[in-house]
Amino acid sequence: MIESDASARPMTTESQLLKRVAELEREVAERRQGESLQRALYEIASLSTADSPEHEHYAWLHEIVGRLMHAKNFIIATYDAEEGLIRQEYLVDEDPSEVAVTFPYGEGISSLVIRTRLPWLLDNDLFQSLVAQGEILAARGVVDFNSWMGAPLIAQDQVYGLIIVQSYSADITYTQADLDLLNFVASHVAATAARWQANAALKRAMDDLAVSAETLRLVGNIGKDLTGSLDTEAICRTLEKRFSALLPVDVFGVAMLSPAGDALDFLFYVEDGLIDEPSSYPLDHPTSLAALTFREDRELTIFNEAQLANAPSASGFTESTPILSAVFRPLIANGRRIGVLTVQSHQANAYGEREMEVFRSAASFAAIALANADAFAIAENARKQAAKALEDQHQAEAQLVHSEKMAALGQLIAGVAHEINTPIGAIKSSGSNISDALDSALLGLPALMDELDTTGREHFSALVARAIKPKNMLSTREERAVVREVTGALEALGLDQARHRAGLLVQLQSHTDLEQMLPLLRHPSVDRILDIAYGVSTISTNAGNINTAVDRVAKIIFALKSFSRFGGVQVWTESDLAEGLETVLTIYQNQIKHGTELVRQFQPMPQVRCLPDEINQVWTNLIHNALQAMDHKGTLTISLSQEGEDALVSVSDTGCGIPPEVQQRIFEPFFTTKPAGEGTGLGLDIVRKIVEKHMGRISVESEVGRGTTFTVHLPIAGAG
Amino acid sequence: MEKGILLCVDDEIIVLTALKDQLRRAFGNDFLIDVAESAEEALELLDELAEHGHALLVIVSDWLMPGMKGDEFLIEAHKRFPSVVKIMLSGQAESAAVERARREAGLHDFLSKPWNAETLVESIKHGLGGKL
């Protein structure tokens, strides 16, 4: 038998019980939080597919964070290092007078977060002492929070802004765990913000260039080409093509700072139309001109053959023609050096003033495009990882739903085995009873007929006729009382073996008129007469018994078939709810017998349009829970009625009840109060999902120590 | 002297119907066959039988019944009639319950449903030993 949930164990003291409940709640909370977090990260990553942030994206972020913690008051601000401004891009606040503002970096708590690049959790005391120490200057607005948290948005070592949540209510005070969570979320938001900002920078650069002269128009085409592409190699190819159209280019190379930040990786290097293998140089490389350019953060223009000859060739090819002109320029995006761009030529003095102008403008485009591709790759990678995790989780969830079903089935099968073995045993025995009785009755009959005179035969025929009439079913207790009475009567008539014969007469339905039976009872062959008549009666009784038992087996098989169909193709059908409930009760008959009193209150009902298999699963879960809640001892009441347009089904137990704090959570997935391994906590989650699919609703009423009632409302017309 | 009694206890009438005819044919000349639909009813019957001077010889009981289960019932019966032959006949019984009945009720045999008539009759005969 399955242990009922922890609160049903009478041995447990109240304090142990409370402790266990607390533990369970914590475990469940952790599990749930892990799940919500996974979803949140997935959703945040998917935001990065937007080119630039709109209000709706911020609102979405707000909603995502709101699912993880109290976030009624929520701000996303961006930090513009160039302008030295903090812009509140999105602000939702309980106080309607709070509006999004832009203010100088240095002011407010936001500046503390951006300056320290750390997440901060403040209460009013800590806030006041930071103000006193001069850590916070010119706090904005009225500071009336109870608890404040801010986490910086840092990606690729750059602060893009911050996320703030705050609570005014004394009921909500954030904890270190909340702060960790917010910071974790912020680190993911930052990757998205990085991409948004790169896009914005690119757009600004485009806008600036749009007003320029012919050279800049040509360069602008590069920008247009690049915005369409996010793949680093594709960007490099486009750059090379465009540069070649504008400048003499015999060598074109793009080197990016390695992820570790200690080397330059040539992602792309073309010399005389041949693409070289990727190569890498440490930043402190003594002769690499690219490394020198990067280290010194300046443009390098070299028309000196000796210097070039000393530099390591990025190419593995033997140079047939010497390089006479070379330009190296750091790639700078969002104020950060991300790599080095070089163009080189076999011509001497290949790069004049105009060429240099083109080169510089194009290089700044290239930097933005490459940074953008980088941010995109990071965001895309994060999105893929999150998608994979979500996929894994869905699979795990599906697996759990399946094992929940299999566990329920497993428990049922043991009980159902008994349910089937009982009627089969009866059928087998009744079958052999019939064949034995046929043998003895038919063998004995001719001799008896010879022995009886005409009157005797008439009496015997009448006896047999009564014996095979349909039986009036008596309970064993009632039958025993009748047998006792008849025994007395037979004794009064002075007949021996009164008890034995009384039993036979009752079986033969010939005990009511003993006078009529007297000639046979006084016949010398009375034993054989009764035996043979009894044999005939046995045949009819056992034939009836077999029919009853076969009906029972058929009913169980039908119920099992309905069960095994769960999860198959679903068809909306007009269905009789009472029939479905009976099917489930048949399956649970065996468990109900353990000590449960079953009360059915079924009102006549029209058929309900539903998915019958899924609805049966709802009844199964509710009945299963009810039986467990009262450890199979108590009263299970199932009622079915109509209320307006709805069918109403309720399942009540007289079990341990559900405490109010647990009631709120029982429909949550993975919430369980059962010991590990006994329930997945998905039962009621599945029930709720099925009921909602039917546009119905489910409610629970429970009193600790008294019992629980689940009520399901289903629209009779079906969903939609 | 009244005949000895063979008592069958099962909550299923179909089982009692089949058992009653089966045992009556095998033992009807020597014993009375009585049936009860629950352990509680059977215990009442035990009291009556004792009062009326009937000798209870054999109990064949199901295990899973509403109310008192077969092992509890047999232990109770064992207290009153230690020498009665006790047989459990069940489609599903917890092995711990069967063990308990063996230990505390002197269970003679456990047969599972669906049962074989000859096996049951043989088991009863074996239990009764020389009394038949």
Salient structural properties:
heterodimer, A: 720 residues, alpha+beta, 7-stranded antiparallel beta sheet, 6-stranded antiparallel beta sheet, 20 strands, 18% strand, B: globular
Summed up, what is this model?
Chain A is of the alpha+beta class and 720 residues long.
Secondary-structure map with pairings?
The complex is a heterodimer of chains A (720) and B (132).
Chain A: H1 14-47, H2 55-68, E1 73-80, E2 85-92, E3 102-104, H3 108-116, E4 120-123, H4 124-132, E5 147-155, E6 158-167, H5 176-210, H6 214-227, H7 232-246, E7 251-257, E8 263-271, E9 274-275, E10 279-282, H8 289-296, E11 300-302, H9 305-310, E12 325-333, E13 336-345, H10 353-451, H11 454-467, H12 476-492, H13 498-507, H14 514-521, H15 526-564, E14 573-575, H16 577-592, E15 596-602, E16 608-610, H17 612-629, E17 634-643, E18 646-653, H18 660-663, H19 683-693, E19 697-703, E20 707-715
Parallel strand pairs in A: 15-17
Antiparallel strand pairs in A: 1-2, 1-6, 2-3, 4-5, 5-6, 7-8, 7-13, 8-9, 8-10, 11-12, 12-13, 14-16, 17-18, 18-20, 19-20
Helix pairs in contact in A: 1-2, 1-5, 1-10, 5-6, 5-10, 6-7, 6-10, 7-10, 10-15, 10-16, 11-14, 11-15, 12-13, 13-15, 15-16, 16-17, 17-19
Chain B: E1 4-9, H1 13-27, E2 31-36, H2 39-51, E3 56-61, H3 70-80, E4 85-90, H4 95-105, E5 109-112, H5 117-128
Helix pairs in contact in B: 2-3, 3-4
